[in-house]
């Protein structure tokens, strides 16, 4: 157990540090590692608890940068989606969702094309209501949806601290709802609680170091790193579902 905790804490520190610079990616190492060490049934509850603690730290660190207008539109749909997704997680296993998310992320990066100039098109704030439902529903099923909504945040015009802070504020409530559901239906065991706490505590130094480095980054570099993380996440999700792809072929 001690060796597992060492691996999880090291991976958590690295994941939260890099995800602070790219607005995503904390589950990138953690989900495959938890799946490998603890099994697929542990992924959603363990990752959810770790995400709750890590994002709570970010709210504290970036409080003044939160876009509350987005959050107020986001939360109603997100809470409903989290309840439904977390409940369905306790009843079924939908592996093909990671395949869909992976394809979406890759296509989104292709759409952005890593252009240096930002698009003139801007998203209306109310878009975050249905987007919050979709994101939290999928997150409830598989533990985390990764950078699924990053294209929406980027199109809206959020970058750097404002994007990190707003995303953290949006997902914390969702993770609380999911944990309550997992506890109520027996998906969150004492062992999973311990591993989730280890991930969350190790996130603190990663978030602090990430905030320090983020200050020196330009908006353009942040945007490019966010897009690169989306592409890597999408490719890894497709790789993890390669057996399903072969079956479909």
TrEMBL record:
<keyword id="KW-0813">Transport</keyword>
<keyword id="KW-1003">Cell membrane</keyword>
<feature type="transmembrane region" description="Helical">
    <location>
        <begin position="126"/>
        <end position="144"/>
    </location>
</feature>
<feature type="transmembrane region" description="Helical">
    <location>
        <begin position="164"/>
        <end position="185"/>
    </location>
</feature>
<feature type="transmembrane region" description="Helical">
    <location>
        <begin position="72"/>
        <end position="90"/>
    </location>
</feature>
<dbReference type="Pfam" id="PF01925">
    <property type="entry name" value="TauE"/>
</dbReference>
<feature type="transmembrane region" description="Helical">
    <location>
        <begin position="96"/>
        <end position="114"/>
    </location>
</feature>
<comment type="similarity">
    <text>Belongs to the 4-toluene sulfonate uptake permease (TSUP) (TC 2.A.102) family.</text>
</comment>
<keyword id="KW-1133">Transmembrane helix</keyword>
<protein>
    <recommendedName>
        <fullName>Probable membrane transporter protein</fullName>
    </recommendedName>
</protein>
<dbReference type="InterPro" id="IPR052017">
    <property type="entry name" value="TSUP"/>
</dbReference>
<feature type="transmembrane region" description="Helical">
    <location>
        <begin position="222"/>
        <end position="239"/>
    </location>
</feature>
<keyword id="KW-0472">Membrane</keyword>
<keyword id="KW-0812">Transmembrane</keyword>
<feature type="transmembrane region" description="Helical">
    <location>
        <begin position="32"/>
        <end position="52"/>
    </location>
</feature>
<dbReference type="InterPro" id="IPR002781">
    <property type="entry name" value="TM_pro_TauE-like"/>
</dbReference>
<feature type="transmembrane region" description="Helical">
    <location>
        <begin position="192"/>
        <end position="210"/>
    </location>
</feature>
